[in-house]
Amino acid sequence: MEKASGRSFLDRVTDTNAAWIEYRLSREILVRDFEKGRISKADICDAQPELLRLAHHIGQSNGEKCPICKNNQVVLVYFMFGPQLPRSGKPVAPGFELLSMMKARPDANFYEVEICTGCNWNFLMRTFEGAALKHKKRQHSKS
Ligand SMILES: [Zn+2]
User: Fold this and answer.
1) 1, 8, 47, 129: which sits with the fewest CB atoms below 10 Å from its CB?
2) Is the pTM of this model over 0.70?
């Protein structure tokens, strides 16, 4: 079941969940595998120093606890990929910078990464294709 309050600022502004591709199920499977001892912490808590630095500076908490260490709150960091952007993606601050980039760059794709600065857990939570904004009227919604 999806939490009614779980809709982010972004979801409300882009006014569609369908445009985002979610990886929450993969995340749950990964966390379960970790809890059952099938994978090690080192395999999944491997955030690079740059990613941790970004998490500290522009990460935005969504109020959720880290699924691995269960101590820290995770933060979300966004990256923009597309023509004339660095191959590793351009970090984008959540909120207005992200929203204005989404509007300005329909040719770009946006990635939402969840990071725990306590144990270095990191996971690609969602991707958003900029072009999806243009075509959202054509999408049929599942409810
Ligand atoms: Zn953690």
Assistant:
1) 1
2) yes
